[in-house]
Amino acid sequence: MATLPNRWYNILPDLPKPLPPPRDPESFEEYSRIENLPKLFPAELLDQEISPQRYIEIPDAILEAYKSLGRPTPLIRAKRLEQLLNTPAQIFYKREDTNPTGSHKPNTALPQAYYAYKENSKYLVTETGAGQWGSAVALAASLFGLRCLVFMTRSSYLQKPYRRYLMSIYGAEVLPSPSGRTKPGSELLREDPEHPGSLGIAISEAVETVLGGEGYRYAVGSVMNFTLIHQSVIGLEAVKQMEEEGLTPDVVVACVGGGSNFAGIAFPMLGAKLSSGDFRHTRFVAVESSAAPRMTGGKYCYEFADTAGIMPMLKMYNVGRGYVPPPVHAAGLRYHGLAPAISLLLRERLVEPRAYSQEEAFEAARVFARAEGVLPAPETAHAVRYVIEEAVECRRRGRGEVILLCLSGHGLLDLQSYGEVLKL
Ligand SMILES: *Cc1c(COP(=O)(O)O)cnc(C)c1O
């Protein structure tokens, strides 16, 4: 039986080069001088962000919460998909969709809520686009008795109400952004009462709320190191589960928005490859949307972490914070940058990039769902596409690879999108 790890893995000490530090957007000073961060995040998270420790103990309360939400998550062999593709490859997928909100995001929302609660904060505040992150924060806040305030882009608030309902059921207050609650929001609303909003505006509203009051903490869904650290539970569990199968993955595959589910499944193995020589032959493939081609078409340079320009600047592959990707349904892959640690590993050619279009991804998701029963989230569908192509390549070459996929979420709240793209 798979067991829950009792510590998280942090790749920083195992990186082949030191990570370029975050910088202040105004002074370009290093991270430790950035004034706003201690007002936004619990001290424990800021320590984790730059921790030189390879392992960080998971507090008991978080272990309990992970267990209560169904961790460890199942690792499933995709036998029917293998048969359908007539491939000698063995395909395994790690089911992060079994989290109650349907994606891997509670893995970091829970610790962020816990550390805020430990500091006697009263409110957890965040922004959300389609609502995957907002619903994870709403759930985590409710588990630790915190109030939750979510600024949701007005266009999603109106057009994609289901995750908004879920957040409300968990007890969160959900405001369409721009809202009348903050100064930047009110100004935009005055200019245009029907303003559709954007993630950048929603971030500004959340951050302004946290900086402007007592007892508020901000929660962030990806990109920052501590989110990657928390997500390592995925990979640590998967390593044990693959060991139980007596197998070592030849290829590990995940989709990348900010990079948290990719780092989650890959870093425990990639770190071992760098430090101990285990997983020497394992490849790590990160799949993006060709609508936001940071890895396959972007630059490696300092850029703002958020579209609002409030958070630190990070050295990362990016398409520029002003880049507005075409409105694809995989909202989680539209981020303009990519976590610095993954960017560095990409630069060192230890991570392989791929990009697919929405149509390629959604077609792959249909094949996967018919074979395995699980409909992947639109984001996850991009990684599924690579898995199918790789398995077909294995057939052509008569090569029996072991492929491990992070199934970061399910698509049951995205059926509208599937209906539109697949013309159902
Ligand atoms: C948010 C999200 C992503 C993208 O975020 P990462 O930080 O890159 O993992 C991928 N898949 C699902 C299901 C998501 O909800």
What can you tell me about this protein's structure?
The protein is of the alpha/beta class and 424 residues long. It is built from 17 helices and 14 strands. Helix 6 links the parallel strand 5 (123-128) and strand 6. The longest helix has 21 residues, at 225-245. The chain is globular, with a radius of gyration of 20 Å. The model has no long low-confidence stretch (mean pLDDT 95). Residues 103, 105, 132, 222, 255-262, 332, 377, 379-380, 408-409 line the site of pyridoxal-5'-phosphate (PLP). This is Tryptophan synthase beta chain. The modification N6-(pyridoxal phosphate)lysine is found at residue 105.
Number of domains: 2
Computed over alpha carbons, the radius of gyration is 20 Å
- Number of H/I helices: 17
Q: How are strands sequenced across the largest beta sheet?
A: 3-4-14-9-10-13
CATH class assignment of the largest domain: Alpha Beta
Largest sheet: 6 strands, mixed
| Class based on secondary structure composition and strand pairing | alpha/beta
Tell me which CATH architecture of the largest domain applies here. Answer: 3-Layer(aba) Sandwich
**Number of β-strand runs:** 14
- Heteromolecules bound: pyridoxal-5'-phosphate
Cα distance spanning the termini: 40 Å
Overall mean pLDDT: 95
- Strand-residue proportion: 15-25%
Approximately how much helix is present in the residues?
40-55%
Global geometry: globular
